[in-house]
Amino acid sequence: MLTGVESNRQRNVRFKLSRLLKIGNEKPKKKKKMSVQEYLDKHLLSRKIEDAVNAAVRAKTSDPVLFIANHMKKAVSSVITKVKARQILDSRGIPTVEVDLHTNKGVFRASVPSGDSSGTYEAVELRDGDKGTYLGNSVAKAVKNINEKISEALIGMDPKLQAQIDQAMIDLDKTEKKNELGANAILAVSIAACKAGAAEKEVPLCKHLSDLSGRANMILPVPAFTVLSGGKHASNHFAIQEIMILPVGASRFEEALQWGSETYHHLKAVITEKKDSLGCNVGEDGGLAPDISSLKEGLELVKEAINRTGYNDKIKIAIDVAATNFCIGTKYDLDIKSPNKSGQNFKSADDMIDMYKELCAEYPIVFIEDPFDKEDWEHTKYFSSLGICQVVGDDLLMSNSKRIERAIQELACNALLLKVNQIGTVTEAIEVVKLARDAQWGVVTSHRCGETEDSFISDLSVGLATGVIKAGAPCRGERTMKYNQLLRIEEELGDQAVYAGEDWRQTL
Ligand code: 2PG
Ligand code: MG
């Protein structure tokens, strides 16, 4: 029984313990005793408790104790007390970084994705490189950097101050591409801090992000669902990485998700009928991966699936060519994954332009991502100037501010694919979106092929009103959790929820 008065048994235990520890006879150090009144005065306790009680009375709450507890909690500002990282696996079974950021009020978790492309201009993903462990992919160094260096640097900081937290990590790293601590280490902490900041403000994460970016309104993005996979993301012979569908004609995100799911399942049936059910195996992003020989064949399958839904022109199509992956010198080898190459599919950049023109005339294609090699600025620029569809820079830009500035100046493309892990902090991600927006570009918030159970990008896409989110197929847990989070956001925003719909290009 807890009475506050020491029982005989407790006294006995204390006595035995003190004898064991030989401290029983030690004279206690002389310390000036603080009186009860002094303690109350020091912590302004009487006034704070009185305030809390008054507030509860004013609110006439049915649960005054809970009200007072919450009121008291709010009176203390949140500070980071510890950052603890660990190695987890991403959706491909490859190690990545997860972080628990502790404040005096709670624990906030974040993890970072990883992709197939990694280029000279993107922030460095720190991997251990020991071939005997996870084939060189373990991230123990990044984890250690968080637990030892980053944690120490951030203790005591206010999680609401995102820019200061990110700057502290950038200063600690001291390299341009975050080689020292690892962008995977820095980003995991940056995202976890952002979640802690939102919780401290008692606002949804998307609202906190919207505030950080200085944007007034939040917008639910149009989902670009990957329905067909190829390229490096699937084991078929299709060179093109993704064919996506965008339900721009839906009235709400919830409806867009329904249309996406229905199209995906119709596509499964179409593939089973026209090819075989083996073609319904999926790629890394969850897209179906039949063995198709051409972009046109893939588009036909998708068109047929859309027709079967009955939504027809309310669903548009997009393509991520990821052309760098099959560019050989100045040619594009569309048979690169095929064992029986005929040589007929070896195309020049001009041939590729002709193919895109034809396909855009025949199918409702609204954007093409990476239509050429990442260093082929000239053809990308020329193709953009034709104004046939939006041209999204992914490998071309690598979410790098210098590449984006160059592309803006040279009018090379007109939309940014935003991959937060290529940048390394939330603050810098917000900055590159501003760069793109100032140039009247579109922005597509993107997942990576190696994803985790973190849905941060969903809130990011709403908070920054990027207009489009590309988070893979409407299937597979690590993809659907991004879309499901958008359902929750839409529900939470209620009457205030706005779906980008037909305005997906420019949600300014
Ligand atoms: C892309 C992404 C996501 P990865 O190219 O757009 O599909 O792929 O993560 O492999 O870079
Ligand atoms: Mg891409």
UniProtKB/TrEMBL annotation:
Any single biological process term in GO: glycolytic process
GO cellular component, one term: nucleus
Molecular function terms from GO: magnesium ion binding; phosphopyruvate hydratase activity
UniProt cross-references to Pfam families, sorted A to Z: Enolase_C (PF00113), Enolase_N (PF03952)
PANTHER family: CYTOSOLIC ENOLASE 3 (PTHR11902:SF56), ENOLASE (PTHR11902)
Top EC group: lyase
Keyword Magnesium among record annotations: yes
Keyword DNA-binding: no
Protein name: phosphopyruvate hydratase
Listed SUPFAM superfamilies: Enolase C-terminal domain-like, Enolase N-terminal domain-like
Chain ranges of the Enolase N-terminal domain: 80-209
Alphabetical keyword list: Glycolysis, Lyase, Magnesium
Record family assignment: Belongs to the enolase family.
Pathway given in the UniProt record: Carbohydrate degradation; glycolysis; pyruvate from D-glyceraldehyde 3-phosphate: step 4/5
Domain Enolase C-terminal TIM barrel, first and last residues per copy: 217-507
NCBIfam families: eno
Domain of life (superkingdom): Eukaryota
SMART domains registered for this protein in UniProt: Enolase_C, Enolase_N
Names of required cofactors: Mg(2+)
The EC number(s) this enzyme carries: 4.2.1.11
